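Problem: given the chain below (168 residues), write out its structure.
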Amino acid sequence: METELRQLSEAVGAALMRRQLLLACAESCTGGWAATVVTATAGSSDWFERGFVTYSNSAKREMLGVPEATLADHGAVSEETARAMAEGALAHSRAGIALAITGIAGPGGGSPGKPVGTVCFSWCRRGETAESETRRFVGNREQVRRQAVIHALSGLLARLEGTAKTVP
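Solution.
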């Protein structure tokens, strides 16, 4: 694994250990890449609880409990769906914190309102309100997915360390 991802995973793991939290990941467009990055870190079994790869809408509904109305009203690529995914990951695990990633990695599938590279994220601690945001990344499919994994893990680390900048 490349140095940047390894160092980010190690920092996330250390922050989770300090707070005695387990992590769950709910992923769509990244197909389990965030879970792969964290489980490549030695000792991750002490802080990584489980991952959900919910690529289809039916998987989001069945595995995470994302409401059909959320998907119908906002789409799979939306902050509403990302928040429901993070909340669902907590509801279906022993984790104390979860991250969720859903987006359009390309090369097709985009629209004027949600172009290729649009990725929605959410982070949620058990018992708290989920936070979410949307980013637009540039590049090919692999580059968009890689940037999404980095952003999700960096956002998690910032929230664990209390340095996240939330935008109203």
